[in-house]
Amino acid sequence: MRMHDPPHPGEILKELCLEPLGISVTRAAAVLGVSRKTLSAIVNGRAGISAEMAIRLSKAFNTSPESWLSQQVQYDLWVAENKLRTLKVEKLSAAWTKQKELKIRSGCRTIPG
pTM of whole model > 0.85? Predict the structure, then answer.
């Protein structure tokens, strides 16, 4: 089940991992092997957590990479759904697709090779 207004994973990283341990972004970046700019962007919600970063975080904080990626996906979906509520998309079905494919094929002439 999706969360309503899930926190950005960077917020979780900051509040549940860095702050309780008294670790600065600069120190955490050094430990993770990334630049301070990269980690700061994540912690401040300006960048997402990549698969590579999820692995780094899981090793540093004894968590699973899947948990970090799951948080990122939940956040991304929530943001996208709220931005695109008015998006107009037609529903597709196998029958509809096959029917369109047949119409396209029947409208084309075969050119002898």
Answer: no
